[in-house]
Amino acid sequence: MKASLLLIGVAILLVGCASAPPRRTIMIESDPPGARIEVNNSYLGPTPTQYTLATNAEGEFLGSWVNAPIVEFIATPPGDQSGLYVQRNRFQPNGFFKAGDKIPGRIFFDMRQQTAAAP
Predict the structure, then answer these.
(1) Euclidean distance between CA atoms 39 and 109, whole angstroms
(2) What is the pLDDT of residue 2?
(3) How far apart are CA 62 and CA 102, in angstroms?
């Protein structure tokens, strides 16, 4: 009886100590504001916006044990303005014995900057 109460007490203590993984929020802005933001081809919203994701103690983008896909933020300019360009910002997540890119606190897209085509 005493042993089972002790076991239950230890189990409760261990469950109570479990915590959620740390999270980081990225503020995403553009010039001009109103750019359409996608993260890995999923619509996030117009700028300014923010994106919150799980991380590790080192503050890295999380991957997997094997070749994790790149985390890509795409900013598409508002359709009613000319002279603006699609922008991309890519980050490498961590992987098997490999550090990943640190999660920035802010991503800024200058929509007037013409960049080279994506590979």
Answers:
(1) 14
(2) 62
(3) 10
Using pLDDT thresholds of 50, 70 and 90, give the confidence band for residue 12.
Answer: low
pTM for this entry:
0.76
- CB contact at 8 A, 48 and 39: no
Secondary structure (DSSP) of 26-79: EEEEEESS--EEEETTEEEEESSEEEEEE--TT-BPP--SS-PPPEEEEEE--T
For the chain, the structural domain boundaries read 21-110
Q: What is the pLDDT of residues 26-84, one digit of tens each?
A: 999 999 999 999 999 999 999 999 999 888 888 888 887 666 678 999 999 988 888 99
Q: Which tokens in the block code for residue 72?
A: 């890509």
In terms of Cα–Cα distance, which of 74, 73, 75, 72 is closest to 35? Answer: 75
- Burial of residue 88, with CB atoms counted within 10 A of its CB: 0-12 exposed, 13-18 middle, 19 or more buried: middle
Name the DSSP class of 83. S
